[in-house]
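Bumping with the actual sequence this time:
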Amino acid sequence: MHAKHAAPRRAHGAANRVRIIGGQFRRRLLDFPDETGLRPTPDRVRETVFNWLGQDLPDWSCLDLFAGSGALGFEAASRGAGRVVMIERDSAAVSALEKNRSLLGADAVEIVRADAVSWLASQAGTFDLVFVDPPFDSGLSGPVLGELGTHLKSGGYAYVEQGGEVEAPPGFIIHRSGRAGRSHFALLVKE
C-alpha cells in the first residue's frame, strides 16, 4: 500500500516549483517548501499583472509582503527592478528564498524574516510597487492595504491577490482587476 501512495507524493512535491516567466531569469525554475497556505501566483495571473505593469520595471523599488515562494518578487527582479524587498515569516520559506536568490544571482533581492504586518508598521520607506498576496482567506490584505498609502510613491502600484473581491482603500483606485478560480486580483494605483 505504501508504494501506491508514494507516487502521488512525488508528483505533489514536483508541483512545488514556480517558473519565472519573463526577463533575465526567464524559464528558470525555483523550488519552494510544501507549506500549508503557500500558494504561488499562477503563471497566467503573473503574466497578466506584468502585462498591466509593462514588461520591464527598470530600477523600480518593490516590496513583496508575504513573499512565500517568491514568485512575484523574483519576477520583478527578473524584469529589472533595482530593489526587491521580500518579507516572509516562515523559516523554511525564508531558507528557500535565500537559496533561490543565490541560484539566480539576484543581487537586487533583500530577504527579511519578519511578520509582514508588523514590519510594514515599523518601516518608513516608499516603493514603486508593493505585492500584497497573504495566505489565502487570512483576511490580512485589509489591514495591510490600510497601511500602504505611506509606503507607496505617488502614482505607485499595489498588486493585491485574495479570496474575495478587492476593494480600493481611500487614496487608491483600481487600475485593473481579474479573477482566476477562487482568487481575485487587482492592480491598484495610488492617487
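The C-alpha cells above came from a reply further down the thread. The longest strand covers residues 152-162.
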